[in-house]
Design a protein that fits this description.
Shape: elongated
Order of helices and strands: EHHEEEEEEHHEEHHEEEEHEHEE
Radius of gyration: 24 Å
Mean pLDDT: 84
């Protein structure tokens, strides 16, 4: 599936949209050094129904990706055995028509695979056993010295794949966990966005311009007039609650008179609506907008420290992007994504229902590509 600045995977239930994002996340975890059991605790449930066991009763599946970069396209392919035991039984790294790394299971009784990688020195190929529960590509920088051109080619390809896979933030906002006040902490947004108010509290003084954009985004997608976003702290300062600021005549009388801290400029609203009173769609809309307007330093993820932040590209994975959102909210969210992702530092890969097709048009959504899994997958 080709991925652009904004890629929407569309199709009916059961067409494989969520599975594609799950595979991407698994590769991300393996690239960051996680073990196979941690990345795939539900591996047996991921085996395609059509997969039949071999003579030894083994069943599994294949996943893979291609990462483009300075080396050119580098392809990673994995063969995962899910039954009777979980292990990586085969791995292949290919670049510029050359196989740079292969692994194969030689002895099922051992917890290792036999790895071979290209060296192009006095010994053209290096062989060594590697663990069968870790991504061999991620281990190569620890095993290859880089003394020959062949070794340097292998290292460059492996590092390109690992860096590309690690810069990913899976996001699935859960409105039912976003309504109550939250403790004030380090302010790193979790994947379920339950600590939305905490993150707004942290960033209130760090980037007023970004908060102003989020306030405008809220006004475009939330019911009723919205004049800004604000915060209400508890008396002891231990918890914080986010609110929508409204003009007094547009708010309920029960909300009038609450003091707020404005997130943009020096504006103080006459009345507020706690985010806990918003609908599920409005909360998901705000959370996804915040994700798109922040970066690795605010998201709860492990950024690639080896690459300068200005050169990193973050990929946001959002399963069910349009869940609970109406047409105008989806369009406003995609317009924001298209604008933010045009810089090349952010990419959005999301799944959507069939109905989203009606809102993906117009020049402001030129960066949005739709992959129909019923028609486009092979």
């Amino acid at each position: 599936m080709p991925l652009g600045p904004v890629t929407l995977l569309r199709g009916p239930s059961g067409s494989g949209k969520s599975t594609a994002l799950r595979a991407y996340e698994v590769l991300t975890m393996l690239g960051a050094g996680a073990g196979l059991a941690e990345a795939l605790p539900d591996a047996a449930d991921r085996v395609p129904e059509r997969a039949r066991p071999d003579a030894q009763g083994r069943r599994g599946f294949r996943i893979g990706c291609t990462v483009d970069g300075p080396v050119g396209p580098v392809r990673l392919d994995l063969a995962v055995q899910a039954e009777p035991s979980l292990r990586i039984v085969g791995e292949r790294l290919t670049a510029q028509g050359r196989v740079l790394l292969t692994t194969a299971l030689r002895d099922p009784g051992r917890g290792t695979v036999q790895a071979e990688w290209h060296t192009a020195g006095s010994t053209p190929v290096t062989r060594a056993p590697l663990p069968d529960d870790l991504l061999a590509t991620a281990l190569l920088p620890l095993r290859v010295a880089g003394k020959t051109q062949g070794q340097r080619d292998v290292l460059a390809a492996a590092e390109q794949v690992v860096v590309g896979l690690r810069s990913v933030f899976p996001c699935d906002p859960r409105p039912w966990d976003m309504r109550a006040p939250v403790p004030v902490g380090e302010g790193r947004l979790r994947r379920d966005c339950r600590n939305l108010a905490e993150v707004l509290h942290r960033t209130a003084t760090e980037c007023p311009r970004r908060h102003a954009r989020l306030a405008a985004f809220a006004a475009a997608g939330c019911a009723g007039p919205v004049t800004g976003l604000g915060l209400r702290e508890s008396a002891d300062g231990d918890t914080v609650q986010a609110v929508l600021e409204r003009a007094a005549h547009a708010a309920h009388a029960g909300h009038a008179g609450h003091a707020t801290h404005a997130l943009h400029g020096t504006h103080t609203a006459d009345a507020v609506t706690p985010l806990g009173r918003l609908g599920d769609g409005e909360l998901r809309y705000l959370a996804l907008g915040l994700v798109l307007l922040t970066g690795p330093g605010v998201l709860a993820m492990d950024p690639v420290a080896e690459v300068p932040q200005a050169m990193q590209t973050l990929t946001v994975l959002a399963d069910g992007l349009d869940r609970g959102l109406d047409g105008p909210q989806v369009r406003a969210l995609l317009a924001l994504a298209a604008e933010v992702c045009a810089s090349g530092h952010l990419r959005l890969v999301a799944t959507v229902g069939d109905g989203v097709t009606d809102v993906v048009d117009g020049p402001e959504l030129a960066n949005v590509a739709v992959v129909d899994l019923r028609r486009d997958r092979t």
